[in-house]
Amino acid sequence: MPGTRPGMTNREVIMRFAVSIALAAALLAASPAVAQTFAPAEERQEDYPEGAGREQTFYACIACHGFKIVAQQGQTRQQWGDTLDWMTQKHGMPPIDGDLRKTVLDYLETAFPPRTAPGGWKNPFGGR
Ligand code: HEC
């Protein structure tokens, strides 16, 4: 039997066999967890504000990263335009031009505008 040596008792052989099975089982059990760590997070466009252009925008961005990092920004149309250019120049996003650019900017501007409370930022500790 491979993995055995002369003089090994049956008990040693059985123990060794049992350890291999336990290791194999542990590896099998661990693999779904590994797969989960590297799988992109499940995201659906329905998780984000409804509006014209949501689908086009969602799929243009999630090719590379989650939409969450888009949705957590609040920017003006101008700033969103700069963000698109930055994605293209710095990260190799295919340029978004023409009608698609208008559609995407319309959505981003409407769904994720700059977040400033009416009257400007208020110090939560009551200072002015
Ligand atoms: C080709 C890949 C690619 C595509 C497509 C892409 N991005 Fe990005 N994006 C990146 C990378 C890489 C980063 C991380 C860059 C960094 O933080 O320096 C990033 C980060 C960001 C950030 C976070 C910036 C910050 O301050 O943390 C925003 C906002 C963003 N992208 C917007 C978009 C939007 C909107 C789209 C879709 C219209 C998009 N991206 C599509 C590659 C891409």
Write the layout of secondary structure elements.
Blueprint: H1 10-38, H2 54-61, H3 68-71, H4 77-91, H5 98-111
The structure holds heme C.
Heme C binds next to α2, α3 and α4.
Mean pLDDT: 83
Strand content: under 5%
The H-level CATH homologous superfamily of the largest domain, spelled out, is Cytochrome c-like domain
Order of helices and strands: HHHHH
Helical run tally = 5
* Distance N to C terminus: 82 Å
Oligomer: single chain
Top-tier CATH class of the largest domain: Mainly Alpha
CATH fold-type name of the largest domain: Cytochrome Bc1 Complex, Chain D, domain 2
Please give the domain count: 2
The tally of strands reads 0
Bound molecules: heme C
User: Which stretches of 5+ consecutive residues score pLDDT under 50?
Assistant: 33-38
Question: Taking Cα atoms only, what radius of gyration do you get, to the nearest Å?
Answer: 27 Å
Shape label: elongated
Considering the chains and any ligands shown, give keywords for the structure:
binds heme C; mainly alpha; 128 residues; 2 domains; Cytochrome Bc1 Complex, Chain D, domain 2; elongated
Description:
This protein is mainly alpha-helical. The chain folds into two domains: 8-39; 45-111, Cytochrome c-like domain (Cytochrome Bc1 Complex, Chain D, domain 2, Orthogonal Bundle), CATH 1.10.760.10. It is 55% helix and 0% strand. It is built from five helices and no strands. The termini are far apart. Mean pLDDT is 83; it is low at 33-38. Bound molecules: heme C. Heme C is lined by residues 57, 60-61, 63-65, 69-70, 73, 83-84, 87, 91-93, 104.
